[in-house]
Amino acid sequence: MKISQCFNPSCLGKNPPDNQVCKMCGAKLLLSDRYRAVSYIGEGGLSRTFLAVDSQAKNTPCVIKQYIPSNQTQANLQQLTKQFKLEVVRLLELGKKQAQIPKVLNLLVQDGKIYLILQYIQGKDLRKQLNEKGKFSEQEVKHILAKLLPVLHSIHQQGIIHQDIKPESIIMGQDGSLVLTDFGVFKHLMSAATGTIPINPGYAAPEQMRGMFDPATDLYSLGVTAVRLLTGCLPKEENGKISDPIFDPIHMSWTWEEWCQEKEIIVSDGLSSVLQKLLREHIKHRFHSAAEVFKALKNPPTETQPPPTTKISPRKPQIELKSAVGIDYTKLRDHLAVGRWKEADEETYEIIIKICHREQEGELKTEDIEQLPCIDLLTIDRLWIEYSQGSFGFSVQANIYQSVENTTEYDTEIWRSFGDRVGWRVNGDWLYWSDLKFGSTSPPGHLPCCLVSSLGQKLVLSRRIVSVIIQKINQCYQT
Question: Which residues have a catalytic role annotated?
Answer without folding.
Answer: 164
